[in-house]
Design goal:
The chain is mainly alpha-helical. The protein has seven helices and three strands. The longest helix is centred in the first third of the chain and has 30 residues.
Amino acid sequence: MTPKEYDFSKVMGISQKTLDIHYNKLYKGYVNKVNELGEKLHVYGLGGGDIETVNPTYHDLRALRDAETFATDAVYLHEHYFDALGGDGIPGGELKKAVEEKWQSYENFERYFKASAMAARGWLLLVWNTNTKKINIYMSDVHNQGGVWGCLPILVCDCYEHAYFIDYGSDRKAYINDFFKNLNWGALNEKYKEATR
């Protein structure tokens, strides 16, 4: 796995220091960990490693499999989060129409999403649910817990303290407001179009 590149020069409110740490230390660290875990799992896939004592309480293979989903989801969630940044925050396009249809107005959607982000411990996601063929908001407190199978992320908000504490202290509400001011609705609309194809 190779890390995606981002230009954070247009992001306002969230400091370059926070974005640098978030991207270079956390995100790239997860990419490196995915690669490391892949190599260790590859040994099992090629017939190596102890498989005679595998059990659900504890085994190296179980620990590797659990860590694999945690690190892989961390990479993808961060990529969706970073993809959303760098815009002027002005909503528009098909995605805006879809949220207005679902929540009766854009204001209702934004209010509900922000309140849900305040309730989240880890992530908040606006997704396209391929099962229901509708958009929905889901919360995931841990990278590999709380996700719903068959859902494609469109808008992802990192609600962990590392995303905002340097700049906002414990004022998560101010961070979420600035997050919305930096949304790239062109990129979000592209994700929505891809998801709904």
